[in-house]
Amino acid sequence: QVQLVESGGGLVQTGGSLRLSCTASGIIFGIVTTGWYRQTPGKQRELVAEVTSGGKTNSANSLKGRFTISRDNAKNTVYLQMSSLEPEDTAVYYCNAKGRWAGGPLLDFWGQGTQVTVSS
User: What are phi and psi of 31, to 5 degrees?
Assistant: First the structure.
């Protein structure tokens, strides 16, 4: 099992910045990708950005240039730096880890979510 603990959400004004953190614990050696998704009421959860265990990143095209994902392997932590925030970025942000253990299927783990609210 993998546990993901998020922090860093909150209320910010338009144009402001926030940094989200996601720290993984448990059987983390099998994790292949860690990322951030976001969800607003009535909409599907969408990928924001993800980073592989090898450091390769992938992010939503619409967010490139404003959102940056990074990782600190020594701390088992992935960060999402968000800048130039807009009211449309208001959502619950979820940390996600995908991993495979003992040759089994790819498994998904989710954090509890952290609210980001951008005021206009």
Answer: -70, 130
pLDDT band of residue 64 (cuts 50, 70, 90) is confident
Determine the pLDDT at residue 44. 96
Cβ atoms of 114 and 8 within 8 Å: the answer is yes
Residue listed under structure tokens 């095209």: 61
pLDDT at 103: 87
Reduced to 3 states (helix: H, G, I; strand: E, B; else coil), residue 74 is: helix
The pLDDT of residue 1 is: 87
The pLDDT mean for the chain works out to 95
Amino acid letter for position 46: E
74 Rama sector, left if φ>0, alpha if ψ -120 to 50, beta otherwise = alpha
Give yes or no for a contact between 25 and 39, defined as CB atoms under 8 angstroms apart.
Answer: no
- In the block, residue with structure tokens 């959102």: 67
Q: Is the separation of the CB atoms in 38 and 113 below 8 Å?
A: no
